[in-house]
């Protein structure tokens, strides 16, 4: 078995002679030459997203394939599947986890065996070294809290909820591992609590790819292989929720689906078991 490197146009390929001998968990990197990005430049791609970026006081994850934020101590405990959590990790591969980071890049079907509870707005093989930024912050900004209160009142009219704390994680223009294209995804997870009830909103502004090459995706399209997963896993090996289309090619269309009547927006009450809005049905907006 020999290691070879080849340069073809803008794409540098690093490959093994026999790809079947690649050890499990190892990844071959495809480098796509792109212009340097200004990390302080934050383009708000859609009003669907809550405000994010350096100008909002966000922290940013390092440029590190399969990396994550440091452990973030949160100001208000967040209840998720009946347990309270006091810290989170924002993981580059499209996951917000409680208590432990997640570096896995190919999504497994829920429920998982590793016992790590997490929120997966778009669990896939993100590579922010190639392109994109991953922002996060916790906030008690009255304007944002009021906006979230109004959203929940509209989507869950029978539930009284006034959050006192929010956490926002935003993946902006992120590439897939092995990308040989300019395709990028922008999505966001918003967590909010009043110390008793907890809600999560998942927003999808622009989804152009589903799979990195280490998950058998195509380097030119970012499609195929084992596509992205979206939903929740409780960590108890029993309770979970999959957004329809997860781990299928249909997940590419998640920006056109919703459970609240607004394309690209999914909202859930998560403090006990997952509760979805009763007034709306999961639907595809054409």
TrEMBL record:
Residues 121-273 form the NIDO domain. It comes from the Eukaryota. GO terms for biological process: cell-matrix adhesion. InterPro entries: Epithelial_Barrier/Signaling (IPR051495), NIDO_dom (IPR003886). It holds the Pfam family NIDO. PROSITE patterns: NIDO. SMART domains: NIDO (SM00539). Coiled coil: none annotated. This is Alpha-tectorin-like. It comes from Python bivittatus.
